[in-house]
């Protein structure tokens, strides 16, 4: 393992591959500041709970007391950098705050790398020890956990200073559980600076002004790739003057012609036909409603006439009956 100058001396640390750490670090205190929550390491609550209740953390890692013992454990046990072991977390069918990158809802088996990452946090690493992690020569996963420790715990204003010497580091690492996502240390460091998502979890959010400065500094060394269309020019025939100009004019991409007048006129006619049909439907509906109203009025009038006729016929029949009764009485007398 590369020496990390754990004695706290102020001598400048030099990367064993020849890359110095960010300028001015030798004038800073060997005690590292902790940004954010000093108890949780800014970890997701679900991940932290699973770490603190895991058998591996409570039993195996509790026996490791020194920085060098934890580094050796990382060397022998860590093969990825995901927060959950492969296949132990089920997020299918979950949406919103209950799945995906939010890291809440259905938990899984917390990974060995994250248990060791939190163990390093509990040791309260010094600046020299943390530099020893990110410059370690034996395993890229020791370096990866060192960079993740920086991302979780160090002030956002210091992140680019920590990561700048390693933006083009070519050592390969595969952070995905089970393999299948190889990248260089430089790519991983740039991802830590520009993205919050990390395999079903989130890093602490970087304030917007600091993130703008980080993006500006990264753009100086890694400008965004601009996709340019390569247009192959056709071979021009052996012609000069007017013929050559006509050839080039023919090869220009044709623009979409403006809409023709007859097309516009046909559209206006179709609108007029639609309006005429709607007017006809309105007239028909009004005519039908008037006709129905008249029919109802006639029906009511005929009903009234029938009632009057019935009542008058009943009245006449009653009067005839009374006249007949009088005549019978007179005849008896």
Automatic annotation (TrEMBL):
Q: Which family does it belong to?
A: Belongs to the PRP38 family.
Please state what the protein is called: Pre-mRNA-splicing factor 38
GO cellular component annotations, sorted alphabetically?
A: spliceosomal complex
Start-end of Low complexity biased regions: 225-234
**Example GO BP:** mRNA splicing, via spliceosome
Explain the purpose of this protein: Required for pre-mRNA splicing.
Source species, domain of life: Eukaryota
Q: Where is the composition biased (Basic residues)?
A: 309-319
Output the InterPro entries linked to this UniProt entry. PRP38 (IPR005037)
* Signal peptide (from-to): none
Q: Please list the residue ranges that the record marks as compositionally biased, kind Basic and acidic residues.
A: 242-308, 320-333
Q: Which Pfam families match?
A: PRP38 (PF03371)
Q: Does the keyword Metal-binding apply?
A: no
Originating species: Daphnia galeata
Where does the record place the region Disordered?
Answer: 1-28, 225-333
Its subcellular locations are:
Nucleus
Looking at the keywords, is Secreted present? no
Keyword terms of this UniProt record: mRNA processing, mRNA splicing, Nucleus, Spliceosome
